[in-house]
Amino acid sequence: MKYQEMQKSELSTILIKEKERYENFKSLGLNLDMSRGKPCKEQLDLSMGLLDEINSVMELGKIDPRNYGGVDGLFEAKKLFGELMGVSPEEIIVGDNSSLNLMYDSIMRYYCFGVLGSSPWSEIHNRKWICVVPGYDRHFAVTEEFGFESVTVNMLEDGPDMDKIEELVADESVKGIWCVPKYSNPEGKTFSDEVVKRFARLKPAAKDFRIFWDNAYGVHDIAENGDVLLNLVTEAKNAGNPNIVLMFGSTSKISFAGAGISYLCASKENIDDIKKRMSIQTIGPNKINQLAHVRYFKSVDNILLHMKKHAQILRPKFYTVLSILKEELQDLGICDWHNPKGGYFVSVDVLPGTAKRTVELAKGVGVIFTPAGSTYPKKQDPFDSNLRIAPSLPPVKELETAMRVFACATKIAAIEKLLAE
Amino acid sequence: MKYQEMQKSELSTILIKEKERYENFKSLGLNLDMSRGKPCKEQLDLSMGLLDEINSVMELGKIDPRNYGGVDGLFEAKKLFGELMGVSPEEIIVGDNSSLNLMYDSIMRYYCFGVLGSSPWSEIHNRKWICVVPGYDRHFAVTEEFGFESVTVNMLEDGPDMDKIEELVADESVKGIWCVPKYSNPEGKTFSDEVVKRFARLKPAAKDFRIFWDNAYGVHDIAENGDVLLNLVTEAKNAGNPNIVLMFGSTSKISFAGAGISYLCASKENIDDIKKRMSIQTIGPNKINQLAHVRYFKSVDNILLHMKKHAQILRPKFYTVLSILKEELQDLGICDWHNPKGGYFVSVDVLPGTAKRTVELAKGVGVIFTPAGSTYPKKQDPFDSNLRIAPSLPPVKELETAMRVFACATKIAAIEKLLAE
């Protein structure tokens, strides 16, 4: 029965019970952090063989990877990870471990120098950026840092609200959009073919409009039959719109979160433009690490096999989160969520107006969740409803406790609100 | 006897001889590149033990270096390389392999966001930057990229012309200066204590003026008794001017040019400001590589010992360059150079108006030198005189041939010029 349909006296009885439970949690002296999508130790252990490769013979063709050169990465890395991302070696730049850094630098370059000859974005007053919500806080922070006004567009079941986006891009001061198209952060939804095709056909008023397509979870299935995403670089090319997209990815959640490699994929024209600027910025990425990745993974098939091992580790964790949500919170009318088939997060919408209180209550017993609001620009969720759960890092045992705390906190916060109305 | 004092007929005779020699070189079908200061294979081999360290146990204190976190680098790396650079762990940020990237990003941040609350440099019309000449082309390219007008100051025997610098900084639109204070690129000169102290006491009109102090060759002695450089971060602090300097360094020429680590040292106030911006830009550097560097080098003493091995490899190469210069070009009045005690380059001033022709002649027989003009902003040497020789990469045997070609080309170019006058 939904909380909303209960008598206040019934709710008060439940509140007393949940508060007893809460005091119990408090007495346990918990110290659990559920806030960031960090891989767990077992996942990091999967790639230790990569480090063996670093120490094998270092000569590869004519390039000594220990020396200077190759601003856009080792050719072999461009080939393998280009194949993984569905682009040719001339449509990819392979960088160091942070794809966020590649995205930031791409915004920075366009901000300082413009896009393929256009005016620098710094000169556009009232510059705007489309942010799909709920979304990834670090994306929003980058465009906020560069003075973009965030215009929000809701995520629907099959991707963002494309009607709204097509309307917004008629404004020339709208310069781009952040997307996590597969296993979106935080909801774990994947954009449908139709949505990708509409992105490919997008005709923004601004010629320098760019889709920042962060395919962070492109091979990160958890379910046996994962989602399938169309390749926007290819679709955009086919739609005669080749320059509209920059696609990003990394091995942060394939090999090592803190020592992987990252890549930027785009049309040759975009890549050449970016490479020209990069040759002023840097002497190039760590090629030994790129070589080790190439030697260790060898082929796209091996990468996909490797990802199945990650899935085996993550599956019981996601199961724990989703089954406790179902057991404790289904049908109460105070909570909603999507069952993702991959990615790193479970997104939960609690009763509007109670997300902050829920996180605060959990913190009160030593369980840290991502701060309420983080999935919105400026960390302001207008509904105070969306919360992001990151199941990857904690062991299943801790995850169980954390989710019991989450359920208890969600209920207390909801009842407090309903009783006060 | 100086060429300038010879009869034209004598010069013509020498020219005929040198041209015969030139044709001989041509017949050898040479293919030598002397243009970039890349370490040679033997130098890179010195650090292969570093790669063993990568594969040892990865846990270090509470941080798993394989995972996310630590935007400013691993604490242990900040400690060791801070000690090497003469700063505390809170005065250093340790990044990935390219210190050029740290410098570029520092300019970029001040350009986009300003310095400790000042107006962004992008908003300063007619912004200017002091470039010590001859200097490092990649430095000049960065400030040129961001629209700074380069104001040149000559390098004297004990450092740049400080009188001129003190005069220039009275202009508020002058925002900074590039320096390579030890074994300067290209001349291999080291700034005297007095010059460093004058930098420390500098009182620019612009509060957001910054000295970009690229201590790239801080431990790169070649001679037994190398030069000694005062620490500008310390001197500036003592002079009550702590925020004026950003000091840079890297292991590019200690461990691997393409896979080392780099560092930015500055006052805590500067570092905190930069870290705040960096936390938006990146999830942090490759900590496994930083850990490997810490484990392999262990102490500053070990780094200095390691550098002695580099010196052993480089000494015969520099000796070859300098002895051939002396043997062939001394006392002809057409060539001047400085004997460096360390660093990566030998800088040669040929007869004004002949540098381009000298490089062209060498190229004609298959020997590539750094393009004439590279040591000046916009690659324009007003005297067409300065040339940079990079002895590190080629084997001694090739270096000998390349330097004979250089001497021959220098003479031909000089005589051609003198005969035409």
Written overview of the protein:
Chain A is of the alpha/beta class. Chain A has two domains: 3-30 and 304-420, Aspartate Aminotransferase, domain 1 (Alpha-Beta Complex), CATH 3.90.1150; 49-299, 3-Layer(aba) Sandwich (Aspartate Aminotransferase, domain 2), CATH 3.40.640.10. Chain A has 14 helices and 13 strands. Chain A has helices at residues 8-27, 41-45, 49-54, 75-85, 99-113, 137-145, 162-168, 193-200, 232-238, 268-281, 287-297, 300-329, 355-364, 396-420; strands spanning 32-33, 92-95, 128-133, 149-156, 159-160, 174-179, 210-214, 245-250, 262-265, 335-337, 346-350, 367-368, 386-389. In chain A, the strands form three sheets. In chain A, strands 2-9-8-7-6-3-4-5 form an eight-stranded mixed sheet, with helices on both faces. Chain A has a three-stranded antiparallel sheet with strand order 10-11-13, with helices on one face. In chain A, strand 4 and strand 5 (159-160) form a beta hairpin. In chain A, helix 1 (8-27) runs antiparallel to helix 14 (396-420), helix 12 (300-329) packs across helix 14 and helix 13 (355-364) packs across helix 14 (396-420). The first copy, chain A, is globular and about 75 Å long. Chains A and B meet through helix 3, helix 5, helix 6, helix 10 and helix 11 of A and helix 3, helix 5, helix 6, helix 10 and helix 11 of B.
